[in-house]
């Protein structure tokens, strides 16, 4: 999950803002995870790749601003409510941590998350499958 780059970026960010803290947790029962999310300031998931970021969906459900890898399958759905990072760029991650640590930015993104309505209808899913199928058919025809 790109923890080494995250830790290094956070150490650098903490030199500029000593009030920030990083807590990394794994393998928690779901209810404990939700409690942690409800009590945290924000969430960061700078994975090298995160096709379906359930952790971020849980953060959204608890109205937490988030920083997420730009290498996610949900970028188009979430681009207006989240902060996105290049998972290979420690400086980018550091800067986005500091950005979210600013109270004005945090308030803005908290509002965006609270106002967000995630809708992925069966019609949209069907359209996505048809689009993929059509692209595959074009590749085969060449």
UniProtKB/TrEMBL annotation:
<keyword id="KW-0808">Transferase</keyword>
<dbReference type="InterPro" id="IPR001296">
    <property type="entry name" value="Glyco_trans_1"/>
</dbReference>
<dbReference type="GO" id="GO:0009103">
    <property type="term" value="P:lipopolysaccharide biosynthetic process"/>
</dbReference>
<dbReference type="GO" id="GO:0016757">
    <property type="term" value="F:glycosyltransferase activity"/>
</dbReference>
<protein>
    <recommendedName>
        <fullName>Glycosyl transferase family 1 domain-containing protein</fullName>
    </recommendedName>
</protein>
<dbReference type="Pfam" id="PF00534">
    <property type="entry name" value="Glycos_transf_1"/>
</dbReference>
<feature type="domain" description="Glycosyl transferase family 1">
    <location>
        <begin position="13"/>
        <end position="108"/>
    </location>
</feature>
């Amino acid at each position: 999950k790109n923890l080494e780059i995250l830790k290094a970026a956070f150490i650098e960010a903490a030199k500029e803002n000593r009030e920030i803290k990083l807590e990394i947790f794994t393998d928690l029962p779901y209810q404990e995870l939700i409690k942690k999310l409800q009590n945290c300031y924000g969430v960061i998931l700078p994975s090298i790749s995160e096709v379906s970021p359930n952790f971020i969906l849980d953060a959204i459900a608890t109205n937490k601003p988030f920083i997420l890898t730009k290498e996610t399958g949900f970028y188009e759905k979430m681009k207006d409510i989240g902060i996105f990072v290049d998972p290979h760029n420690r400086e980018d991650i550091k800067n986005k941590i500091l950005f979210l640590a600013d109270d004005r930015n945090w308030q803005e993104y908290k509002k965006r998350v609270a106002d967000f309505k995630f809708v992925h209808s069966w019609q949209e899913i069907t359209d996505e499958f048809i689009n993929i199928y059509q692209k595959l058919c074009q590749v085969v025809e060449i």
